[in-house]
Backbone:
């Protein structure tokens, strides 16, 4: 019985590409916390809805691309190309997970949050996924997918979808996605070309791609520093932490990108860690501000 449960959990993790829904859920939770300033039942409900919706979207992506996944070493061991799970089963899993996530957002949060969630799925699976085989500009289309989740959390907390604060946070997520994608192409670009995907590695050499990454890293850091300038983050400690984190990222990528044999895996981990740290600092600032207000109120 225990082995069966472990197998089911492991299969769910593979079908949903578990790291993706976890990251998406955290960015959505950040949007919720920045608006509400508190961790409550609404935060947990909306995060659960986003997690299931993202899991369904990721599984649907595996269904859409399983023939191409079989052509790449990086993805050939996924459930469908390896023969460990059927394409039909994966499709049903994606439908159930996405539907459950949407219903949770609709009934547990609100209509706007559910609609943005559906828009994210349609954009990822209906626009970005097919576009990957046709144009290198799919990178920019895919970047929008990363910008939507914090907006789901923000609106789930009752925020206005076009409020300047959430637009700035969404812009940060959009910009961050681009160097994140290009790093993947630096490591696996040739595999993507063999499988028939349109890759920047077919048009730019490694040195040019590294320069392009560094430019987008600078843009990412600039977008981070716009957040406190706009008054979204107010704590001096948090602002200092954001500044130091940004300096660390720029320095790290300058060193890595100027080396003849850059450690792409290390760079990928660093850019992911940077975003996780930034989102945590945003959330911490909101929670700290709320706590201070409660202390002042009771005094």
Residues:
């Amino acid at each position: 019985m225990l082995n069966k449960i472990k197998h089911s959990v492991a299969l769910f993790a593979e079908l949903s590409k578990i790291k993706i829904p976890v990251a998406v859920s955290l960015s959505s939770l950040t949007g919720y916390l920045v608006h509400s300033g508190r961790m409550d039942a609404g935060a947990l409900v909306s995060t659960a809805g986003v997690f299931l919706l993202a899991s369904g979207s990721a599984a649907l992506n595996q269904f859409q691309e399983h023939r191409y996944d079989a052509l790449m070493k990086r993805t050939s061991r996924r459930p469908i190309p390896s023969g460990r799970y059927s394409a039909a089963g994966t499709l049903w899993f994606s439908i159930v997970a996405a539907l459950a996530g949407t219903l949770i957002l609709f009934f547990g949060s609100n209509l706007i949050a559910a609609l943005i969630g559906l828009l994210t799925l349609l954009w990822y699976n209906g626009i970005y996924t097919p576009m990957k085989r046709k144009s290198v500009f799919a990178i920019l289309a895919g970047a929008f997918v990363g910008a939507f989740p914090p907006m789901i959390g923000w609106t789930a907390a009752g925020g206005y979808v076009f409020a300047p604060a959430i637009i700035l946070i969404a812009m940060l997520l959009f910009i961050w996605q681009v160097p994140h994608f290009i790093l993947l192409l630096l490591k696996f670009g040739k595999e993507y070309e063999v499988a028939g995907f349109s890759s920047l590695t077919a048009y730019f050499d490694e040195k040019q791609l590294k320069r392009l990454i560094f430019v987008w890293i600078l843009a990412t850091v600039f977008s981070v520093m716009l957040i406190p300038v706009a008054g979204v983050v107010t704590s001096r400690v948090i602002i200092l932490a954001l500044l130091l984190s940004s300096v660390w990222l720029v320095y790290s990528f300058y060193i890595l990108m100027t080396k003849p044999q850059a450690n792409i895996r290390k760079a990928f981990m660093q850019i992911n860690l940077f975003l996780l740290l930034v989102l945590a600092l945003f959330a911490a600032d909101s929670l700290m501000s709320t706590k201070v207000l409660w202390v002042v109120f009771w005094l």
User: Anything to note?
Assistant: The chain has one domain: 2-298. The chain has eleven helices and no strands. The domain at 2-298 is CATH 1.10.357.140 (Tetracycline Repressor; domain 2).
